[in-house]
From TrEMBL:
Membrane-spanning residues: none
Lineage, top ranks: Eukaryota, Sar, Stramenopiles, Oomycota, Peronosporomycetes
Pfam family for this entry, one: RVT_1
Gene3D superfamilies: 3.30.70.270, HIV Type 1 Reverse Transcriptase, subunit A, domain 1
Protein name: Reverse transcriptase domain-containing protein
InterPro entries: DNA/RNA_pol_sf (IPR043502), Rev_trsase/Diguanyl_cyclase (IPR043128), RT_dom (IPR000477), Viral_Replic_Matur_Polypro (IPR051320)
Domain Reverse transcriptase: 1-152
Length: 152
């Protein structure tokens, strides 16, 4: 599936390959995700700077809001391309091949803050006015129905 959606490519020539295992997803259906162990890669990573939302600021901003909508972005990290020079470093192996991700992988040190930074940039005009972002979750809020409809 990851190959079909162009999230990974086979790369048995990779100089890097972290071990991966199947991890059961939460929910009523037996579904699994590939979970690479990126500890060796993360140990070589210098974390990027970024700011996660402050809960006190969030509480002040949503005070008085009566209308809310929440969106959970589908496979959030996979929506962002991984820089070409970084791809091989995040390769992972399964029982029969090595894959190199083309998209930002889950489990990498910088993935959450990189995604947060990108989302804050995309929504900078609405951020904290009528919209909050926490990685791949977006919350819209408004005090009136009319305001809510206009921000949708």
């Amino acid at each position: 599936m990851l190959e079909e959606c162009k999230c990974v490519v086979r790369n048995n020539q990779s100089r890097w390959a972290c071990a991966a295992m199947a991890t059961r997803k939460k929910g009523p259906v037996d579904d699994y995700r590939i979970t690479p162990d990126y500890r060796p890669t993360n140990a070589q990573t210098i974390p990027i700077a970024g700011v996660m939302p402050n809960l006190l600021v969030v509480m002040v901003k949503v005070k008085g809001a009566r209308f809310f909508a929440k969106f959970d972005l589908f496979k959030g990290f996979w929506q962002l391309m991984l820089h070409e020079e970084s791809r091989e470093l995040f390769s992972f192996m399964t029982n029969d091949t090595v894959y190199t991700p083309l998209r930002v992988p889950q489990g990498a040190t910088d993935s959450p803050i990189h995604f947060q930074n990108q989302m804050q940039e995309v929504f900078r005009d609405m951020l904290y006015e009528n919209l909050l972002v926490w990685v791949d979750d977006i919350v819209l809020f408004a005090k009136t129905c009319e305001e809510f409809v206009s921000v949708l």
